[in-house]
Design a protein that fits this description.
Blueprint (H helix, E strand, L loop, with lengths): L5 H14 L5 H9 L4 E6 L2 E2 L2 E8 L8 E4 L4 E14 L2 E18 L6 E21 L3 E20 L7 E19 L4 E12 L3 E14 L2 E14 L5 E16 L1
Antiparallel strand pairs: 1-5, 1-13, 2-13, 3-4, 3-13, 5-6, 6-7, 7-8, 8-9, 9-10, 10-11, 11-12, 12-13
Amino acid sequence: MTLPIIKPLSLLVAAIFLGSAPVLAEELTEEDNSDQWRFELKPLYLWFLSMEGDTTIPSPERDSGSTSNFDEGKLTSAFSLHFEAGKGDWTVFTDYLYGQYTADNINISSSPIQGNSELTMHLAELGVTYRVLEDFWYRVELLGGVRYMYVENKFDFYSDKLDSLSAKDSLWDGFGGIRLKGFLNDSISATVRADVGGGSSDLVWNVTALVDWRYLNWGSAYAGYRVLDYKVSNEALGLNLQAKGPVIGLNFYW
């Protein structure tokens, strides 16, 4: 059964879309091909991430350390920023994400001992893209760069008789991949980015898919989904982590 409110809402959304200022893909292509600098800023984009995986927390009193899982938890604080500067076929980009993720009633290793796990991470990347192929409706770019993550994990036992465990590490990884952009109509485009790399990590891969509605020449709104997967095995911090979730935000151009 169709709810009565759906049809009016659909008409309203269509009216807003049709009444917005169209930005033609052809105009955007001409702008990107010019010798003028172009800039793009995504301030405070929201990534509603959830985490799955586990991490090994070394303890001075143990040789092997202990493992905590954080499949069920919540994001308690976050800050994010993305910026790009381009000219001609080249674009330089940077991205920063701060997140703190907590999980309660976490079992440590395979024992019934439980506690609270708090994972804090600073994730930054610097990269460059080069446009290798372009037509009226699509664009293909190769990308590469370096990604840095500072991660700290703290585990507090529910028992006062046991001391807290903590571990932290700085991870530097290179990455390479591709970014595809397709213009669906006058103002809506879809972008898919995929990259893979390693270094301090055994393997790290990242996939992002976004749909962007450019309602003005200088602004757009977008939504999509992102997955970031880390595999790390070292003495400081063993990490098997996948962060994923919806992404929404605003984009500004000049």
